[in-house]
Amino acid sequence: MKAYIFDLDGVLVFTDKYHFKAWKMIADKLGIDFDEEKNNRLRGVSRMESLDIILEGSTKKFSSEEKEDLATQKNEYYKQLLENMTPKDVSDDVRSTLKELKDRGHKLAIGSSSKNTKFILNKVDLMDYFDAISDGTNISRSKPDPEVFEKAAEFLGEEPKNCIVVEDAYAGVDAGKAAGMAVVGIGDAASYDKADYSIKEFNELLE
Length: 207
Ligand code: B16
Ligand code: MG
Hints:
The protein is α/β, with parallel strands linked by helices. It contains 8 helices and 6 strands.
């Protein structure tokens, strides 16, 4: 019986619009260009690495204290935006598919780079579906490093070869493959040839 490990942002919920708004606030303050294309590069990437990508657009050198401060400001604004989330932010398709996978006896876990994972899962009332949560708070290396998925398998007590990762980010697909797991690409990653399977709708996981 395979275990499923789900990425959060871009797979179960769509918080990228809030990440974009919050990073845009920082970029505008610093006079740095930041558009949707650059935002795409932040998918699945940790907060500090995302900041480094944004700061590529500046000639100024930032100290680690300044960077910490910018990342904190971004996260405070991001969390204010997350306050708007409700259970309605999870589609019926996602909710019923997770329930069916659970009913069929599969173990389910989260494998997300976000340090806000539990906050988001509580907001959208998804916490009870998962047997384990591996997120930005229990890793020291971000996707494409396999650590987040390796930890998820460890928390579930499963061998990597028995796990299937569901991911929307190229970095996440690479991380899942590096962990020795099968990977399903959805959204952006549906067209990534390193993914073992590609789906358009979430319920295709049941096929
Ligand atoms: P936080 P995922 C990732 O979530 C997002 O895709 C990425 O844009 C974000 O920078 C990262 O989480 C860290 O998020 O600032 O909340 O710790 O796709 O891995 O679920
Ligand atoms: Mg994602």
